[in-house]
Amino acid sequence: MAPPAQTNRSPSPSQPSGKSEVTDLKSQLRQLAGSRLPGVDDSKRELFKKVISYMTIGIDVSSVFGEMVMCSATSDIVLKKMCYLYVGNYAKVNPDLALLTINFLQRDCKDEDPMIRGLALRSLSSLNVANLVEYLVGPLNAGLKDNNSYVRIVAVIGVLKLYHISVTTCIDADFPAVLKHLLLNDQDTQVVANCLLALQEIWNGEASTSGDAMKEREALLSKPFIYYLLNRIKEFSEWAQCLVLDLVVKYVPADSNEIFDIMNLLEDRLQHANGAVVLATAKVFLHLTLSMTDVHQQVYERIKAPLLTLVSSGSPEQSYAVLSHLHLLVMRAPYVFSADYKHFYCQYNEPSYVKKLKLEMLTAVANESSTYEIVTELCEYAANVDIPIARESIRAVGKIALQQYDVNAIVDRLLQFLEMEKDYVTAEALVLVKDLLRKYPQWSHDCIAVVGNISSQNVQEPKAKAALIWMLGEYSQDMSDAPYILESLTENWDEEHSAEVRLHLLTAVMKCFFKRPPETQKALGAALAAGLADFHQDVHDRALFYYRLLQHNVTVAERVVNPPKQAVSVFADTQSSEVKDRIFDEFNSLSVVYQKPSYMFTDKEHRGPFEFSDELGSLAIGTESDVPAHVVEANDKDLLLGTPDKEESRGAGTNGSAYTAPLYDTSLLSTSTQVQPELPISNPAAAGLSPQSSLAIDDLLGLGLPATPAPTLAPSPPPLKLNAGAALDPGTFQQKWRQLPICLSEELSVSPQGAAALTTPQALPRHLQGHSIHCIASGGQAPNLKFFFFAQKAEESSIFLIECKINTSSAKTQITIKADDQSMSQAFSTLFQSALSRFGTS
To answer: What φ, ψ does residue 171 adopt, rounded to 5°?
Structure first.
């Protein structure tokens, strides 16, 4: 027989060259299994280390399972740990092997050494094999009654693991009752903390199917139990303290005296060295005082110093986490932090993400007395070698200017930025100057004098070039070279890759044409021709729209493209107040660090009460949807829209589809009728379209497509009936308000008669009570009033909760609706709006 072929690859010293080496390990372990010679434990350690190292790099060493178990009969704790690690790894993937470990693990659970008992119980409960749970009940019962606290700590977590493997086995063995006894009577605080964690998880899971579990869960939020934990909180570890504080947040005190008692008990937790404990305590203080405006403001003052101390001490990562929470508080109450603005100055050695957050906070805390110093500091950052931070600092200067603080000095600084020989500084300054001119048109003369000296060839960034082109069109009468600069940009149309710039260029040339026709006529013709031939649909459509407008009537085109403008008073916020409030509700969580609610970044199974429909993203325009209207309305993605956007999307178009067409002003119908003969109609059937369909974009483009028939209306749901005798106590209302998710949030108009009737605040509750909607609390002073209402569905226990904020001067009301039955929230909203519309008129 020929010898085996030799390979050039040499085996790694940390890796077996073949099955023979694993076989050698197996034989060596078998030899040592029953040996009692001195030094045998050291030999076992070396072999165990080899087995673990092979297992770690992915080599299958399951064949030595029996020998490993036999060698585990030793009092050496290190050997025990390595053996348990090996057993736990292979038991998960091979349940048959797990059965071999039961005997020796059960034997170790009765060992004299409490460390071995605990390790064995932990390994036994970690096997995660459903058909072996019967062997786990006995050791867990013994572990829960063990004299050693470490064994009890492990046993409590083992019960929780058992619950996830087999709910029935855990409940039938009456483990929750044993855990409750330990929770109230055990002297070891870590055992108490683990019991609290396990019981919360078990009772939360069982509350939906068991009334007893629901009562037990509510008992955790009772006054005696909360005070029992608070009185022992100093004995707990940092992790356990955070667990207790998270539970306290859910507690609803009976009166203000309880609130002050709890805050007095937790006062010293604000001085804790651990940042997680400080943030958890701050969350308790903030949530307990939400309904007490004056005390809530004092809480901001109280927690300010500990949080600022945490920011300045510790790692950059910890500083960023605490700073994110400070950022949230600053945005809610900037006046509280206005005197501490120097704490938010950037340090040279801080990471960029910390500096960026500090710049946002400097923008928020700026006021009339601190603006000059803050802007001076920000201007120093503009020359920073870190280009993203330099950009952010320039934007921060612009934001402060838009807040109307010391505008004169800030405009001078921004104009100095335009003269700096750095492209990114010039680009950011151009964008900000455009926004400043939209809000402060009186500064146009000074700004345009500087902007006119900037060559468009030196501006390459799309947003900056678009801003420069906007100024060229808007103030072309004050810039002598504006028509010629626009003409040169039009000549280089094909070299411009940004659709945003080309859209601005079209509009700017149109505006310039209306102000200086002779000089701009050539550029306008070239721009329209290039736009009509453009591959980008938006650019093509705008060019065609402008061409048709000019073809129809130049005067009308000027009124459309360049109407008289009013200064912008307020720029749109990037986040709605609802999203900010929800982030505040999730204080001391990743939601604050990510600056978005948890449902936006967690998997669906972990969203809890913030689940929302995923079908919205798959809706097709112009097709019917299977998603009910109330689901689309209640979708949390609506929170990303501003109120005007919501009103447009919920306006006309009650055809049952997910898409609603934009509203058109009926006064334009006469204009449409005049223009219609000039539009070519390729389809004769289109001539019979209704006036509304004649405004469709297809007819505007002369395509003459037939109108799509309206979809069939779905049958309307039965009317909602409310219980006129519904009752709800304030404590239950407050607890439900915290637990239930927001179903709907809308802005409505109040009739002038209704706004006038609100001079007597109790008039609205009396009116709505006639519609079976009851008021539980009210407050505020004119013109800002706030009411809390509740209603109950007739013949059912389903409750609706309503927060109603009314501004009598603007005759606007903001309503927020929460409901047990979210599917009826839209029907209730309609009923509430109907009742509100009749207020003051009857």
So the answer is: -70, -40
Is residue 59 located within the same domain as residue 200? no
- Do 404 and 497 sit in the same domain of this protein? no
Distance of CA 7 to the CA centre of its chain: 57
Same domain, 411 and 446: yes
Please tell me whether residue 787 adopts helix, strand or coil conformation: strand
Residue 537: the pLDDT is 92
Question: Of 575 and 611, which is predicted with more confidence?
Answer: 575
3-state SS class at 785: strand
pLDDT at 125: 87
Helix-strand-coil percent breakdown of the chain, rounded to 5?
65, 5, 30
pLDDT in tens, 386-429: 888 988 988 888 888 887 666 777 777 778 887 777 888 888 88
Flag whether 782 is in a domain.
yes
DSSP H or E stretch at residue 630: helix 629-634
Q: Distance between CA 475 and CA 473 in Å, rounded?
A: 6
434 and 469 in a single domain? The answer is no
Report residue 649: phi and psi, to 5°.
-70, -15
Q: Report d(CA 64, CA 81) in Å as an integer.
A: 17
In sequence order, the 6+-apart residues with CB closer than 8 A to the CB of 741 are 609, 610, 818, 822
Q: What is the pTM of this model?
A: 0.64
Q: What is the helix (H) or strand (E) element at residue 818, kind and residue range?
A: strand 812-819
Q: Render the burial of 296-318: b for 16+ CB within 10 Å, e for the rest.
A: beebbeebbebbbbbbeeeeeee
pLDDT tens-place string over residues 31-73 = 777 676 777 778 888 888 888 888 888 888 878 877 887 887 7
Residue 815, helix vs strand vs coil: strand
Residue written as token pair 């509510």? 218
Which residues span the domain enclosing 788?
A: 661-837
Separation of alpha carbons 433 and 440, rounded Å? 10
Which of the four pLDDT bands, split at 50, 70 and 90, describes residue 605? low
Among 93, 128, 145, identify where a domain stops: 93
Same domain as 540, residue 674: no
Percent of the chain with pLDDT over 70: 82
Based on the structure, what is the number of domains in the chain? 5
- Measured CA to CA, the distance from residue 507 to residue 527 in angstroms comes to 10
Residues 534 and 470 in one domain: yes
Give residues with Cβ within 8 angstroms of 588, minimum separation 6: 276, 279, 280, 282, 283, 325
**pLDDT tier, 607 (very low <50, low <70, confident <90, very high otherwise):** low
CB atoms within 10 A of CB 735: 16
- C-alpha torsion 43→47→50→52, nearest 10: -110
Write the CA distances from 450 to 435, 481, 505, 509, 570, integer angstroms. 16, 13, 20, 21, 26
Contact status, residue 787 vs residue 599, Cβ threshold 8 Å:
no
239-263 mean pLDDT: 91
Q: If DSSP codes are grouped into helix, strand and coil, which group holds residue 378?
A: helix
Cβ-contact 247, 226 below 8 angstroms: yes
Most confident range (mean pLDDT) of 215-219, 227-231, 409-413, 437-441 is 227-231
Q: Is 785 domain-assigned?
A: yes
Evaluate whether residue 15 is within a structural domain. yes
Query: 427 — alpha (psi -120 to 50), left (phi > 0) or beta?
Result: alpha
Q: Are residues 50 and 109 in the same domain?
A: no
What per-residue confidence (pLDDT) applies to 382? Answer: 83
Q: What does the pLDDT look like over 5-26, one tens digit per residue? A: 444 444 444 444 456 777 888 8
Helix ranges (H only) for 72-174 are 77-93, 95-108, 114-125, 134-144, 149-165, 167-172
Which residues fall within 8 angstroms of residue 714, CB to CB, at 6 or more apart? 656
- Is beta strand 812-819 parallel, antiparallel or unpaired with respect to 799-807? antiparallel
Residue 606, in any domain of the structure:
no
Instruction: Tell which of 542, 565, 588 closes a domain.
Output: 565
Residues 26 and 160 in one domain: no
